Amino acid sequence: MLREAAPAKVNLYLHVTGRRADGYHLLDSLAVFGPAADGLALAPADDLSLTLEGPFGAALDAELDNLVLRAARALAEAAGMPARAALRLDKRLPVASGIGGGSADAAAALRGLGRLWGLGLGEARLAAIAAPLGADIPVCVASRPARMQGVGEVLSAAPAIPGCGLLLVNPGVALATPAVFKARAGGFTPPAALPAAWPDAAAMAACLASLRNDLEAPAIALCPMVAEVLAALRALPGCLLARMSGSGATCFGLFADAAAARAAAMRLPGEWWRDAGGLYGGAT
Ligand SMILES: C[C@@](CO)(OP(=O)(O)O)[C@H](O)COP(=O)(O)OP(=O)(O)OC[C@H]1O[C@@H](n2ccc(N)nc2=O)[C@H](O)[C@@H]1O
Ligand SMILES: Nc1ncnc2c1ncn2[C@@H]1O[C@H](COP(=O)(O)OP(=O)(O)O)[C@@H](O)[C@H]1O
């Protein structure tokens, strides 16, 4: 039995820089990972199967073509072998919530099956197999901070991220990514100018404050509760920056460290989903 973590992707800023002829949008975004994660367990089997568990497992019962199974089939096809594995997904990330849960699951399946099947494929090869399945999957393959450009598949080094804490909050309303892009009005935003490193969380927050998430306004138009979540985050002690991730509705608060993020999480209304801690694989 193998296990892979599928950490949430958080867009610290997201500029829509243009639009391709096929309608997809060109982006400039800085993605970091965690603190929340789905979990994928993989075992050898004679055919391909997926069972769902965890707090949001039932939300995917009606999903006929889970991204985990699509990723498994795409990898098997690329490797020229039958797709055989018993997969169990512990679904802890809210579905359709701007933190790339489905993409993280697909990336975890590619990494885990690569190991289970002994394929020896590197991250770049897995990301290339992943790209046709979803714009967010390539960045999730490494699950390390990265700058995303193109439609999300052009990855480059992120500035060195200082120790910090994140608080993720979702009001329980699913937002479909295409609907949010469609509701966007106005022009385009140029790519950000980023330093090589930020010395601490406060400096990172000050720099990010000069940037934006261009999908925040259209998401608020579709789901006004996003504005409530942002106001509640901004009012928390120690919150250095509050912003929506991806196409929403999950928002994040940035804190000096994991302990400050966890303490702030306890002060939020009880009915909202939240998770707090340090970055996945990072210093806190
Ligand atoms: C907005 C972002 C930012 O990281 O995150 P989420 O909100 O999904 O987490 C991503 O670009 C989402 O990536 P992903 O969710 O994989 O998108 P896909 O399945 O490829 O596309 C879903 C739909 O979103 C729109 N789309 C997506 C990506 C992009 N660069 N331009 C787009 O216009 C298109 O309408 C597309 O049909
Ligand atoms: N394993 C999965 N987890 C979540 N969503 C999935 C999964 N497989 C397929 N989907 C589909 O992908 C859509 C986007 O899901 P998700 O990745 O959670 O959203 P977002 O990209 O906004 O963060 C869902 O509405 C669902 O229909």
UniProtKB/TrEMBL annotation:
What pathway or pathways are given for this protein in its record? Isoprenoid biosynthesis; isopentenyl diphosphate biosynthesis via DXP pathway; isopentenyl diphosphate from 1-deoxy-D-xylulose 5-phosphate: step 3/6
The record lists the catalysed reaction(s) as: 4-CDP-2-C-methyl-D-erythritol + ATP = 4-CDP-2-C-methyl-D-erythritol 2-phosphate + ADP + H(+)
What Enzyme Commission number(s) apply to this enzyme? Answer: 2.7.1.148
Q: Which UniProt keywords apply?
A: ATP-binding, Isoprene biosynthesis, Kinase, Nucleotide-binding, Transferase
Q: Does the keyword Nucleotide-binding apply?
A: yes
**GHMP kinase C-terminal domain segment(s):** 208-268
- List the molecular function annotations (GO) for this entry: 4-(cytidine 5'-diphospho)-2-C-methyl-D-erythritol kinase activity; ATP binding
Q: Which residues bind ATP?
A: 94-104
The GHMP kinase N-terminal domain, residue ranges: 66-142
Instruction: Locate the active site.
Output: 9, 136
In the record, biological process GO terms are: isopentenyl diphosphate biosynthetic process, methylerythritol 4-phosphate pathway; terpenoid biosynthetic process
Under InterPro entries, the record lists:
GHMP_kinase_C_dom, GHMP_kinase_C_sf, GHMP_kinase_N_dom, IspE, Ribosomal_Su5_D2-typ_SF, Ribsml_uS5_D2-typ_fold_subgr
Q: Report the domain of life of the source organism.
A: Bacteria
The record's section on NCBIfam families has: ispE (TIGR00154), PRK14608.1 (NF011202)
Q: What does this protein do?
A: Catalyzes the phosphorylation of the position 2 hydroxy group of 4-diphosphocytidyl-2C-methyl-D-erythritol.
Family statement: Belongs to the GHMP kinase family. IspE subfamily.
Q: What is this protein called?
A: 4-diphosphocytidyl-2-C-methyl-D-erythritol kinase
- Name the species this protein comes from: Dankookia rubra
